[in-house]
Amino acid sequence: MLKPSWRRVVLKVGSALIAPDQDGCSERYLRPIAEFIQQCRQLNREVILVSSGSVAAGRHHFQFQHQRVPIALKRAMAAVGQTEMMNFWSRCFDFPCAQVLLTHGDLSDRVRHINVKNTLKRLLDHGVLPIVNENDTIATDELKVGDNDNLAAMVASVVQADALIICSDVNGLYTADPNKDPAAKLIPEVRQITPEIYALAGGASSRVGTGGMRTKIEAAEKATAQGVDTLIVDGHQATTFQCLLAGNNPGTIFYGQKIPLPAKKHWVRHTLRAKGEIWVDDGCVDALCQHGASLLSSGIVRVKGDFAPGDAVIVRCSVSKRSIAKGVSRFSASQLFSIKGQHSEKIASCLGFCPNGSNAVIHRSEMMLLEKL
Ligand SMILES: Nc1ncnc2c1ncn2[C@@H]1O[C@H](COP(=O)(O)OP(=O)(O)O)[C@@H](O)[C@H]1O
Ligand SMILES: N[C@@H](CCC(=O)OP(=O)(O)O)C(=O)O
């Protein structure tokens, strides 16, 4: 479904397509995908490829039979598999390819985020195909995104893509995992991602897949919030790509929201990870939810976690215990311990200084109310 309005597309290719037999990269599925990329470019569409498969492609170099691979070995597999995968893609094209390896930290740090954005833009401007993957060789649990569906959605947001196409081993979202339930039915269109949609998702069934359907729905939620149409399609079938080029939907499409979130709020909501919690009283919940106010110290009753100024936190109602909002705290956890419950004018005397010249603990421009209360 290559809409005329889609000028920039992020294409995500899963491990099961890159190395289906875990015996190095296989041409079997990659040729039609490479042709699709070429055709998109001929139609003046910009493509950013997010390619999984470094671990699956590198696995055959290591004598290891068990299904659960220790993390140090996985990193080594990724190191060797990543070069094989890049070589493979490069051989498919007569234009240059660029390897872009990212971790979550590269996207959550504002300066690095802008560097990634500028680099991707330069590559596209010069006709180079960016090929993105997680930097699995160095990524730790804390640093990594963890799956390439979410990574692709974050990349789609960074490059302000119009569409995200997730090529998987299944042709879309079904009412249940079709590998387990033969009666499961394909859902061709999703307009709103609700808890009921999440409830349909099961895990990965292939030996090499990471997130299953859940991470694809998470990716669709991230991308559609910024107005990016998101498709899940079957990358095994060459007909999928003919169908896309003919302007048809071969799988499931999640429609981009008509009113996209502003970029900064999207980044707070969908890229930053919360490092702690600020619990607030009922009056404060009312001010945030009903009046769109900034969070002030007077409404804070409890602070959890160890966070620094500039870190994201979850705001919780101390009565209902529900998560109300996510935002960037302008104060550290230890500073908030000193000023919680105090009126804003007391901040300077409590702390001995006013850290940033502002009284708001979380400014409303850096706070997102959470829809799923
Ligand atoms: N509701 C569902 N609809 C479709 N597939 C589902 C669903 N729930 C779980 N799955 C599983 O998700 C798998 C795709 O995820 P995954 O193996 O991680 O693929 P990839 O490597 O492409 O990221 C499918 O093969 C399927 O078994
Ligand atoms: N970054 C990892 C892949 C992670 C991942 O999400 O895999 P997949 O579910 O196959 O898209 C790798 O290159 O092996």
TrEMBL record:
PROSITE patterns: GLUTAMATE_5_KINASE, PUA
Function: Catalyzes the transfer of a phosphate group to glutamate to form L-glutamate 5-phosphate.
Transferase as UniProt keyword: yes
Cell location: Cytoplasm
A Pfam family hit: AA_kinase
Binding site for substrate: S52, D136, N148
Broad class of where this protein is predominantly found: cytoplasm
Root EC class: transferase
Entry-linked Gene3D superfamilies: Acetylglutamate kinase-like (3.40.1160.10), PUA domain (2.30.130.10)
UniProt GO BP: L-proline biosynthetic process
Enzyme Commission numbers on file: 2.7.2.11
Pathway given in the UniProt record: Amino-acid biosynthesis; L-proline biosynthesis; L-glutamate 5-semialdehyde from L-glutamate: step 1/2
Protein name: Glutamate 5-kinase
Gene Ontology CC terms: cytosol
Entry keyword set: Amino-acid biosynthesis, ATP-binding, Cytoplasm, Kinase, Nucleotide-binding, Proline biosynthesis, Transferase
Domain PUA stretches: 276-357
PANTHER family with a match to the protein in the record: GLUTAMATE 5-KINASE (PTHR43654), ISOPENTENYL PHOSPHATE KINASE (PTHR43654:SF1)
Gene Ontology MF annotations: ATP binding; glutamate 5-kinase activity; RNA binding
Superkingdom assignment: Bacteria
